[in-house]
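Thread: sanity check for a docking pose with coenzyme A

Original post by kr_44:
Hi all, I'm comparing my docking run against an independent structure prediction. Below are the sequence and the ligand SMILES. Could someone generate the full complex and paste the structure tokens? I mainly care about where the ligand ends up relative to the chain.
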Amino acid sequence: MTLRQRSLDDLPPIVFGEIPKVDAALVIGRIGEHQGQLFDSEQGDDFDGFSSQRKSEYASGRRVAHEALKLLSGKPAAVTREGRMPEWPAGYRGSISHSREFAIAMVASTRRCQAIGLDVVQKNAVSAKVGARIMLAEELLPPWGLIDTDWRAIVFGAKESVYKAVHPEIGEFLEFHDVEIKMNESDRSFTAATVEDGPSTAVVRAGIGFVSDFEDHWLTLFLV
Ligand SMILES: CC(C)(COP(=O)(O)OP(=O)(O)OC[C@H]1O[C@@H](n2cnc3c(N)ncnc32)[C@H](O)[C@@H]1OP(=O)(O)O)[C@@H](O)C(=O)NCCC(=O)NCCS
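Reply from moderator J.T.:
Ran it for you. Here is the predicted complex with coenzyme A included:
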């Protein structure tokens, strides 16, 4: 197994635990003015209309995605998009996420990985009101003695990660109440299941998720 990792801008390494045998690269960096690093094909007609914060977040996401592709294949490549959904170069799958502070991307070879979803959530970002909207009754009790605020952010990130992995593969739109997250307390991995059988059920069941505590954020990763 090879997980190549880089933390840019003096950030510490990410620790995700025992992730499965994928040929993958994971890169994190700070949000900054990286618009100059975009490929022409990544800009699209709507780019000029983005706010300056959105331009920075978008470009910083592409910057870490380029770096991850470089770690895997030796050279960066454009990650275009269909609507908001990223389109990866042939032979690769990946996922991008950003908070106001960090951008993170993971890319894997399609030989050993069907789908990837990644999310970064600031620890206090999910209010009790939002938590009530996104959590199922079965998810309300925090595991490992976590406080409610942390647990809400983890459930939010985990569900977004599942969605980002599965939606490009299956095309089904999943609401937050369509998916249940179950933590494995021994190693902070998680599994996910759809509440009702549907097009995404098998692929969601086949995946495994991971949680990492990173600089006042929770990182979540879902791999199929
Ligand atoms: C699109 C969505 C997943 C983005 O998540 P977010 O937390 O707002 O933002 P993040 O920074 O974490 O991720 C944004 C990145 O996700 C990627 N993305 C967007 N749509 C995507 C999709 N359908 N599939 C996979 N990745 C997607 C993009 O790379 C985007 O960044 P970019 O626009 O700068 O390229 C989210 O807004 C959304 O619409 N979710 C749908 C409902 C849902 O999550 N349900 C969960 C139930 S399982």
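The mean pLDDT is 94. Hope that helps with the comparison, let us know if your pose agrees.
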